Amino acid sequence: YRNAKVLILDEPTAVLTPQEADELMVTLQMLAAQGTAIVFISHKLREVMSVCHRVTVLRDGQTVGTVLTQDCTEQQLAEMMVGREVSLKREPRAVELAPPNERQPALELRHLHVLSDRNLPAIQDLNLSVYAGEIVGIAGVDGNGQRELEEAISGLRQPERGDIRLHGELAHIPSDRYTMGLLTDFTVAENLVLKDINRPPFSWRGFLRPAIILNHAIDLIQRFLIRTPSAKTRTGKLSGGNAQKLIFARELTRDPGVILAAQPSRGLDIGATEFVYAQLRSRRDAGAGILLISTELDEILSLSDRIAVLYEGQILEIVPAAQADVNQLGLRMAGQQGAAQ
What we know:
Elements: E1 6-10, H1 18-33, E2 37-41, H2 45-51, E3 54-59, E4 62-68, H3 74-82, E5 105-115, E6 121-131, E7 135-139, H4 146-153, E8 161-166, E9 170-173, H5 177-181, H6 188-191, E10 203-204, E11 207-208, H7 210-223, H8 240-252, E12 258-262, H9 270-285, E13 289-294, H10 297-303, E14 306-311, E15 314-320, H11 326-333
Parallel strand pairs: 1-2, 7-13, 7-14, 9-12, 12-13
Antiparallel strand pairs: 3-4, 5-6, 5-8, 10-11, 14-15
């Protein structure tokens, strides 16, 4: 509209359905053909491969290399980004799931109504069950009630009405790791015991036990591959990927029966994302029920056993992930009927 000659786009498809993203790619190709110079910043390799002529890969703030997209593959780009072979594709389950009526529910949402900060309906009459040993993905364009749903389940927002039933301890992987999951001025060791700071062995008769807290942190740093100068480093100095690993370490070592994972790979590189996926699959296989809230459809398809489409605070349909069609899901995410047009 402004006849710009240079466009810089940073994650431009974050709030778009697959169909809308495809339309944007066509528009960008048309602008490039007309002489517009476009810088396209994205971690979505499929989009990079479809629209870009050249790709420069950055790692740890440094240029790894520049390649022509016609001369490389998504896998090669991923390896350049991480420095090793990596895969985010859907993996077959080691053990097939029993039918829902033969499994125990881990999380039950019944006729849930939640208001937004503006006192408007954000979640409306939502019904959903997550069973032990499965991942249920909530797919939807950002702003359709995901944040309010997350806050209601985790106890950060009071529902207007309805029931939330947890069958087991809840682990919360928050959508905003810095404001909801960490105290950035506290050390790594302190953040790793935030939820158990008043319990043995970390405290005794009201006094903290620093040596035990430090040894606990060193153990988790090694087990979860958290890259930090030391356990006494302030958490605000960690990278996004390592901050997320810290949250996973704290939450998952408490042996939860229910895991609420909201936008778990947002802002992470491919290596950290691979780690997140492996952790969620491992906990699912160990019997936890996981509710995955994500605006990344590829992530939903890669991890979920069942997919629920959320639109304007309501679940429009629930489908087995193995039978899910990207185009149909995209239409439903836009509020349209699930019939290709």
